[in-house]
Automatic annotation (TrEMBL):
Species of origin: Fusobacterium ulcerans 12-1B
Recorded GO CC terms: plasma membrane
The protein's name in its UniProt record: Uncharacterized protein
Domain of life: Bacteria
InterPro entries membership: Cell_div_FtsQ/DivIB_C, FtsQ_DivIB, POTRA_FtsQ_type
Residue ranges of every copy of the Cell division protein FtsQ/DivIB C-terminal domain listed in the record: 105-215
PANTHER family in UniProt: CELL DIVISION PROTEIN DIVIB (PTHR37820), CELL DIVISION PROTEIN FTSQ (PTHR37820:SF1)
Amino acid sequence: MKFIIRLFTILGISFLVFSIPSKFLKLDFFKIKRVNIKGEPKLLLRELTELGKTTYNKNIWDLDFKSIEDALKKDVRVKDASIKNNALGELTISVEEKELYYYAQIKDKIYLVDSEGIVFGTFNEKEKKDIPLISVNKEEDIKSLLNVLVLMDDYILKELVSQIYIKDKNCIEIILVDGTILKTNEEIKREKYKVVETLYSELIKSKKVEYIDLRFNDFIVKSLGDKSDDR
């Protein structure tokens, strides 16, 4: 008889040990009642709003925050993302979208491009900026032209670039904001762009320049005449 009483006592205690926490964790106390979205995302605003709706009023123990965070980080439009359960009933979703560095014209459409040459949106999805346009026939060509542009990083010359495209297999043309064309290729070293920056700055003081060819040991310059001829 004592054995039976002891057995039921153990079973009762076991039931309480396992059932009370289970019921406790399902209380409304653990439900998401507020979702904060940080980072002022624009490209993902619709998706994040929907995510906020789906997580609202859900129990925190039923949500896989790591999986949601990983999914956000894999989005091509996202630079970084995090999800934090700041306090009971409050969730914060932080998203840093990629910064726009270039536009890419692929056939008849214009796309947004990040600093690494990756397309992450379409033209109207971001506020317009005065940045270079990379014109290509296929997306794979963007990075080869980007490799040329990065050689001008920290040079004033890069700020003057309006457009870049592949003319043919031996020539890449860079159009500056005043219409001057720089003829180059992937073999030209960074130092030569600094020299052409100085040359160009001097030439435009008195000349109208059609193009400067960097592909030879000596620069080839074609002038359209003196600026004084316009007077």
